[in-house]
Design goal:
The complex is a heterodimer of chains A (about 110) and B (about 110). By secondary structure, chain A is an all-beta fold. In chain A, about 0% of the residues lie in helices and about 60% in strands. Chain A has no helices and 11 strands. In chain B, the strands form 3 sheets. In chain B, strands 2, 5, 6, 10, 11 and 12 form a 6-stranded mixed sheet that branches. In chain B, a hairpin with a 5-residue loop joins strand 7 and strand 8. The relative contact order of chain B is 0.33. The chains are: A mainly beta (about 110), B mainly beta (about 110).
């Protein structure tokens, strides 16, 4: 099973809202990722967790706050977002040094 | 700097015709190589990967790719495309000095003519 699940599928939020994106995998992968993807562009890496510790933060604004409660779950907490943050947010997982498997994404619209 | 080039922004192919999507990378050693496909509004699906060994790699959905070290290329091929293959295709490279960070090509949009 190479499935990564993400909820919600779509999210519309105002600039003062707080919301969270969720990601889950049951492949025993020990690395999990958040990406942001704008239309017609490749995904941009935001965060990497390795063995449940934040390994990479690609200078992402603090209005995005990741959390890895356990080896299967990854959350992205959103607060005070800007309209330019509207994008497809993708979660992925992998073995360390392995291929990354992506979820279907959350389409985020910030009004 | 390390980079991945997909020279074709768009490719149009008739249904049933063969397909080749090009990918070139700039990196000193042999990196890990990947092809992903993305249908509109969907996540990315891994088509195939190359880590080492046989340079001709078989993937899902009838795709294959060939690693050519001398040309720093990893081109994706399919002998006969189907309308359902219309999508965006991304080549990605993981340099040996990073376990996690992929370098992505800009993508090639595949359009299928009926």
């Amino acid at each position: 099973d190479t499935e990564v699940t993400q909820t919600p599928k779509h999210l519309v939020m105002g600039m003062t809202n707080k919301k969270s994106l969720k990601c889950e995998q049951h492949m025993g992968h020990r690395a999990m990722y958040w990406y942001k993807q704008k239309a017609k562009k490749p995904p941009e890496l935001m965060f990497v967790y390795s063995y449940e510790k934040l390994s990479i933060n690609e200078s992402v604004p603090s209005r995005f706050s990741p959390e890895c409660p356990n080896s299967s779950l990854l959350n992205l907490h959103l607060h005070a977002l800007q309209p330019e943050d509207s994008a497809l947010y993708l979660c992925a997982s992998s073995q360390v040094s392995g291929a990354q498997y992506f979820g279907p994404g959350t389409r985020l619209t910030v009004l | 700097a390390q980079s991945v080039t997909q020279p074709d922004i768009h490719i149009t192919v008739s249904e049933g015709a063969s397909l080749e999507l090009r990918c070139n990378y700039s990196y000193g050693a042999t990196p890990y190589l990947f092809w992903y496909v993305q249908s509109p509004g969907q996540g990315l699906q891994l088509l195939l990967k190359y880590f080492s060994g046989d340079t001709l790699v078989q993937g899902i959905k009838g795709f294959e790719a060939e690693f050519k070290r001398s040309q720093s290329s990893f081109n994706l091929r399919k002998p006969s495309v189907h309308w359902s293959d219309a999508a965006e295709y991304f080549c990605a490279v993981c340099p040996g000095d990073s376990n996690y960070q992929l370098i992505w090509g800009a993508g090639t949009k595949l359009i299928i003519k009926p």
